[in-house]
């Protein structure tokens, strides 16, 4: 069927243009296929009901492709926009953390440091590059407190207002 070739054209039009232009592409494809490939050639004629069914099947399939492609592209654009907004928010929050006068430290459940702001550098003496990826130093007197807090976090409890001791770089 000559219409199969024009399904590819409709798909490409859907990817690179808007729905209106894609729909025009579908209609022109149908007319061109009828004009050049369906007997009698070089005239637009719908001789049999089978030819009409083929034409409408092509048009329906092509329009479905156009709509699916456009829906997918719209979803991809929204996802990209969401990623850009998330990245902007992450940068904004990072700037707030860096400007905070209090030490803000983030770490995993094994106390491996994943975030260390400038105030933490000033208070504890380690530069971020020295401490990131290492276990947050704590005196042995608070090890059980850390284990208790860790167990609470892992069980899903909300943990607030924790005060603990950490070791400065100079001991």
Written description of the protein model:
It contains six helices and two strands. Helix 1 (3-16) runs antiparallel to helix 2 and helix 2 runs antiparallel to helix 3 (49-99). Strands 1-2 form a two-stranded antiparallel ribbon. The chain has helices at residues 3-16, 19-37, 49-99, 118-124, 128-131, 143-154, and strands at 105-107, 113-116.
Task: Describe the structure concisely.
The chain is built from six helices and two strands; from the N terminus they run H-H-H-E-E-H-H-H.
- How many strand elements? 2
First CA to last CA: what distance? 82 Å
**Reading side by side through the largest sheet, how are the strands ordered?**
1-2
Overall average residue pLDDT: 84
Helix proportion of residues, in percent?
A: 55-70%
Identify the notable features of this structure and list them briefly:
mainly alpha, 63% helix, 6 helices, 2 strands, single chain, two-stranded antiparallel ribbon, 171 residues
Which helices and strands appear, and what pairs or packs with what?
Layout: H1 3-16, H2 19-37, H3 49-99, E1 105-107, E2 113-116, H4 118-124, H5 128-131, H6 143-154
Antiparallel strand pairs: 1-2
Helix pairs in contact: 1-2, 1-3, 2-3
């Amino acid at each position: 069927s000559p219409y199969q070739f024009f399904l590819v054209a409709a798909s490409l039009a859907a990817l690179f243009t808007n729905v209106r232009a894609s729909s025009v592409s579908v209609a022109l494809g149908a007319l061109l296929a009828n004009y050049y490939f369906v007997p009698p050639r070089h005239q637009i004629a719908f001789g049999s009901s089978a030819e009409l069914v083929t034409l409408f099947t092509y048009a329906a399939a092509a329009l479905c492709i156009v709509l699916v492609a456009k829906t997918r592209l719209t979803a991809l654009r929204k996802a990209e926009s969401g990623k850009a907004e998330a990245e902007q928010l992450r940068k904004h929050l990072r700037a707030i953390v860096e400007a905070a006068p209090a030490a803000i430290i983030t770490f995993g459940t094994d106390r491996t440091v994943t975030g260390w702001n400038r105030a933490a550098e000033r208070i504890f003496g380690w530069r971020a590059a020295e401490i990131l990826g290492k276990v947050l130093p704590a005196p042995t007197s608070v090890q059980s407190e850390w284990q208790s807090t860790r167990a609470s976090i892992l069980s899903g409890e909300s943990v607030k207002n924790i005060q603990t001791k950490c070791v400065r770089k100079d001991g």
